[in-house]
Amino acid sequence: MGTLYVVGTPIGNLEDITLRASRVLAKVALVAAEDTRVTRRLLAHLKARVPLVSCNEHNWSARLSELLTALKSGDVALVTDAGMPSVSDPGSEVVRQVAAAGHSVEVIPGPSAVTTALAVSGLPADTFLFLGFLPRRRVERKKKLAAVARVTDTLVIFEAPHRMRATLEDLLSVLGDRQMAVCRELTKLHEEVKRVTISRGPRILRHTPRGICAGGGRL
Q: Can you tell me whether residue 142 is helix, strand or coil?
């Protein structure tokens, strides 16, 4: 019986791939990828010629039987577009189902946008709360923020570029003014980190950012 390898991949800079991840991706029989186009570029960089199948939030349950079949005769790697599978993607469900079927699951740790942002944010990182992506609807988003309004640990949030300004407004109205860092393009050529208060956030965003907003304790 094969092993499912949960492989961390670069969050931007392809040179951040680990030696172990490179070796595993080159030797498995199949790679299950969030977006095959993204992973194909990584495999080309590694000069690894391995079959790819898509496995994402929309099709993971339908793809599961194919992965279990492949694991009967070989090893499979599970990757996301960037960072560690199971963090803000459906990888955890795949891991749970594969383990329940009796297969071995091994992790190949790699880059994480969460810890990368924390390291460069300048905010306390000894304890933090990761909220992932906030709800798209404003009412639901504010409700989720209200649930953590009393938390004094650093909050780490993923947000889509087109919702960033609205989210900053909600952070200010629900959490109050706090120190934060808005990070975009981490590990890439145009990496940018803005360390400001939430109230100044909208004014320093000259363009719609990508990445993470990490808010610390109340001022």
A: helix
Tokens representing residue 114 in the block: 């969460």
Strand partners, 70: none
For residue 67, what is the enclosing H or E element? helix 60-71
User: Does residue 217 carry a pLDDT above 60?
Assistant: no
What is the pLDDT, as a whole number, of residue 207? 55
The whole-angstrom separation of Cα 170 and Cα 141 is 8
* Own/partner long-range contacts of 130-134 (Cβ < 8 Å, ≥24 apart): 130/156, 131/155, 131/156, 131/157, 131/158, 132/87, 132/88, 132/157, 132/158, 133/88, 133/157, 133/158, 133/159, 133/160, 134/158, 134/159, 134/163, 134/167
DSSP of 151-211: --SEEEEE--GGGHHHHHHHHHHHH-SEEEEEEESTTSTT-EEEEEEGGGHHHH-SS---S
Is 197 within 8 Å of 179 (Cβ atoms)? yes
Residues in the chain: 219
Q: What is the pTM of this model?
A: 0.89
Contact (CB, 8 A) for 73 and 2: yes
- What average pLDDT does this structure show over 14-36? 98
Contact 25, 50 (CB under 8 A): yes
Side-chain-facing half-sphere of 182: CA atoms under 13 Å: 25
Euclidean distance between CA atoms 131 and 113, whole angstroms: 13
Joined tokens for residue 53:
């199948």
Element (H, E) at 143: helix 138-146
